[in-house]
Amino acid sequence: MFFVKSLLLNPVLSNLVLQKNPGLLAQTLSRVQISTMAVKEGLLVAGGFQGELICKNLNHPGVAYCTKLTTDENAITNTVDIYRNPSGSRRVIAANNDAQVRVFDAENFTCLNRFSFDWCVNNTCVSPDGKLLAVLGDSADCLIADAQTGKITGSLKGHLDYSFASAWHPDGRILATGNQDTTCRLWDIRNLSESLAVLKGRMGAIRAVRFTNDGRFLAMAEPADFVHIIDTQSGYSKGQEIDIFGEIAGISFSPDAEALFVGVADRTYGSLLEFNRRHFNQYPQTMF
């Protein structure tokens, strides 16, 4: 039996109040419709449909930083993330439809790097060691770049359409990519010549992928109705399909890998669903 909990969330932020931060270059924003969000180490980062970037320290009132990254007509901020570079410094990364990826210092929000590509960037993901950057977008090929310089070091070929999601296994050796061609491909970073495995969805594109912190499970979500959980210890051959109702806004595992959260973006029944992992005979071998 699943334990399910529902919570209504408001996807619009209004009347943002900036923390007092002398010398910080920022813009006052209002009525921001959220397109993407990340939370890590007490920092919340959100992107908006008009190219906004909003950063908030969860332990302080107000917003630490907010600005418009671009004024392009189709300026949506597609993805944001928080990571630490190889020296341990915390960084914020944002990718936009203007074909650029921007890297910010997470302490003073200075823009440190800006990488340009040949197509709209739909998703980026930094490897656990902070050295590699996966770049996916309006191209059938996915790119691997140096996270410090943006220099392209590899290309992943196999998908048939545009890509929208990626996630690194905690060991940093396996990268999962979700594509409009209804598949999630797994790549061994030590051999990029071909994908390690191809996982198929039921009906739609793979719009979100997540590994548990221990690397035991991989979850992948379609745009609506279906979430798939794969057991990585089975060689990615065994899994569970969760059939829900409504458009899926996103997925995330709890830090202890005991719960899976699924956001439902239905206008009437919008909610946050929680699925708890089941255990039999005191052995954590089962799915959610």
TrEMBL record:
<feature type="repeat" description="WD">
    <location>
        <begin position="156"/>
        <end position="197"/>
    </location>
</feature>
<keyword id="KW-0677">Repeat</keyword>
<dbReference type="InterPro" id="IPR001680">
    <property type="entry name" value="WD40_rpt"/>
</dbReference>
<dbReference type="InterPro" id="IPR019775">
    <property type="entry name" value="WD40_repeat_CS"/>
</dbReference>
<keyword id="KW-0853">WD repeat</keyword>
<protein>
    <submittedName>
        <fullName>Uncharacterized protein</fullName>
    </submittedName>
</protein>
<dbReference type="InterPro" id="IPR036322">
    <property type="entry name" value="WD40_repeat_dom_sf"/>
</dbReference>
<dbReference type="InterPro" id="IPR015943">
    <property type="entry name" value="WD40/YVTN_repeat-like_dom_sf"/>
</dbReference>
<dbReference type="Pfam" id="PF00400">
    <property type="entry name" value="WD40"/>
</dbReference>
